[in-house]
Design brief:
three-stranded antiparallel beta sheet, 578 residues, 27 helices, mainly alpha, 3 strands, single chain, 2% strand
């Protein structure tokens, strides 16, 4: 009688089954995920195959052990055991093929399985499993983009429109919607930026920029900017000498094409439109990273030579505009303000303006709008020069919350803002920017003609403190803002006393830094910091409607100021009309 179980008997089956169960339970989530997304129902097939193989192997062993009658033929006990062994080997090889050799991709046969596996993983929210999920989805990104339908915003706005899509398109939309979860975006930003790089490259390659992936892109960018250890900060280092720092794959893929960023605006997924609750928590380093990626978008927009205004850049400017919003905290700051995060945020904002103007200069981008808008009732779409000038005005307004001490005010008002925005020997782009900045400042001050307000008063106080009460020569130092200086001094000379009589509080808001009001002589006084001399240098501005200027002491500063003003009046001037 032949010995049972010589080739693949029931004992060998139990051993192989135990080994297979051990391999599965000890395997990583990565391989279980691959099995779950296979085009075949592997779990069901495996279970019923094991049941059939186990029962058959036990029956064959018992049958031949008991010597029950068998049919004569070429296949005996060994042949039957070989068939069962091959069957079991086929089940094991199927697992190994899908888990190791050829992992499943997103296609028509696997779309539903993949969507279900993604849903279960996202719902569980395990950090390690989310990281593996991001890596596994990289291989399926080309197919996910290919089978996604667009435009998404119409498909989701129109009731029942998604019912007309193929099942695979619905599954692609479901997967992208699931991947937009906050936990997954944080995981991608922290450990798996390759997913977003591949996704953006495929979107541009297949020219499908309005698919549902915008939620994933926006969420990942927000998480990357929040996490100071993400790839964005490694790439934002301008002194980086490594390959990643020079090539900047993440920043280039996500922000390197302005058209992609602009198309995402239409589906409310603009990556540089940061939620207000997030941007309010930005530190100076995070603002620096945000400015760096915005400059990449700006460069792409300028290189495209597009004549249409950029909505995405406008929204990015609105975020950067908040960088100086906390300067008021420096009022009570002790020690050096240069070490404070509020001051460094202001530095990031001013540096962004400078870099943006340099980009405009390199691309030879001229302004689209005239300097002065004659008809205030007509809406004028701002161009980039208008936006940058508005950004600078906001920084100036925020800086005027610091009114004393005079040395700190001077460092903040002039050295940190005005001096940085008025470097000499600049090109045409800088001149266009100066013209628009000065026009905005002048128009803000002239709002005091219509109604007294603290905003305009703060602008007037800033200009008086920075430029002083005496107008210099058109050809000397400060010639780039000579017209603004002359216009502001003329307006102040004629209107300040009237403003002080009507609204003393508003007039008092104009006095900041070294500017004070001399009540007996009805004049403004600019007091400079004490240097080597024993007495600080002072300049005066005699106001019309007050005491005669002859009542003032005939100091050298006062006489030189009157002579400079007389020379200015004798010369025909061009610039801002009064």
């Amino acid at each position: 009688m032949p010995e049972a179980g010589g080739i693949f008997g029931f004992p060998e089956f139990l051993t192989a089954l135990a080994l297979l169960a051990l391999v599965y339970t000890a395997s990583d989530f990565r391989y279980r995920f691959r099995i779950a997304t296979a085009p075949l129902p592997i779990y069901g097939l495996t279970f019923w195959s094991i049941v059939a193989i186990g029962v058959s192997s036990l029956l064959v062993d018992v049958w031949y052990a008991e010597g029950w009658p068998t049919l004569s033929g070429p296949v005996g006990q060994s042949g039957l055991q070989a068939i069962l062994g091959i069957w079991f080997l086929g089940v094991a090889l199927t697992w190994f093929v899908f888990a190791f050799v050829s992992p499943p991709l997103f296609n028509k046969r696997t779309s539903r399985h993949l969507a279900g596996a993604v849903y279960r993983t996202i719902l569980k929210g395990s950090g390690s499993e989310l990281g593996i999920l991001a890596e596994e989805l990289i291989r399926s990104v080309p197919n996910l983009v290919r089978y996604s339908a667009e435009p998404v915003h119409r498909l989701h706005d129109e009731e029942g429109a998604t019912d007309e899509l193929p099942e695979i398109a619905k599954d692609a939309h479901s997967i992208f919607a699931l991947l937009g979860s906050k936990a997954f975006c944080q995981q991608v930003a922290r450990e798996s930026p390759g997913l977003l790089i591949t996704l953006c490259d495929e979107i541009k390659k297949q020219n499908k920029r309005r698919i549902w992936a915008g939620t994933l892109i926006k969420g990942t960018v927000a998480a990357a900017l929040t996490n100071t250890d993400s790839v964005v900060y490694h790439e934002a280092d301008e002194f980086a000498a490594d390959y990643i720092g020079r090539v900047r794959p993440f920043t280039t893929a996500v922000f390197g094409e302005h058209q992609l960023v602009e198309e995402l605006v239409d589906i409310n997924s603009c990556p540089i439109d940061i939620d207000f609750r997030i941007q309010r928590q930005f530190t100076s380093r995070q603002y620096e990273a945000f400015c760096a990626v915005t400059l990449v978008v700006l460069k792409s927009y300028l290189e495209s030579r597009s004549a249409q205004p950029s909505v995405s850049l406008y929204r990015a400017f609105e975020v950067i505009k908040q960088a100086s919003g906390d300067l008021y905290r420096l009022k009570s700051a002790s020690g050096s303000v240069y070490e404070s995060d509020e001051y460094r945020r202001l530095e990031a904002e001013i540096e962004f303006i400078r870099d943006a103007i340099d980009l405009l200069q390199k691309q030879n981008r001229m302004p689209r709008n005239p300097i002065r808008q004659r008809d205030k009732r007509r809406w004028r779409t701002p161009d980039l020069y208008d936006d940058l000038a508005e950004l600078a005005c906001r920084a100036i307004l925020d800086a005027t919350t610091i009114r004393e001490p005079s040395d700190r005010v001077w460092e903040l008002h002039y050295n940190s803002i005005w001096g940085r925005l008025h470097d000499i020997n600049k090109g045409a782009a800088w001149r266009h920017f100066w013209q628009r900045l000065h026009r905005k400042l002048y128009d803000e001050v002239r709002e005091l003609d219509r109604f007294p307000n603290y905003k305009s008063a703060r602008y007037l106080g800033y200009i008086l403190n920075v430029l002083g009460p005496q107008v210099g020569s058109r050809t000397g130092f400060g010639r780039e803002y000579h017209a603004l200086h002359r216009g502001i001094i003329n307006w102040t000379e004629k209107n300040y006393l009237q403003l002080r009589r009507a609204t003393p509080n508003v007039a008092e808001a104009c006095l900041m830094g070294g500017i004070s009001f001399d009540e007996p002589h009805q004049r403004l006084v600019k007091t400079y910091a004490v240097s080597i001399a024993t007495e600080p240098k002072k300049q005066y501005l005699d106001l019309k409607g007050g005491a005669a200027s002859s009542d003032a002491p005939a100091t050298p500063e006062a006489r030189s100021g009157r002579r400079a003003k007389a020379r200015t009046k004798r010369q025909p001037q061009k610039g801002i009309p009064v």
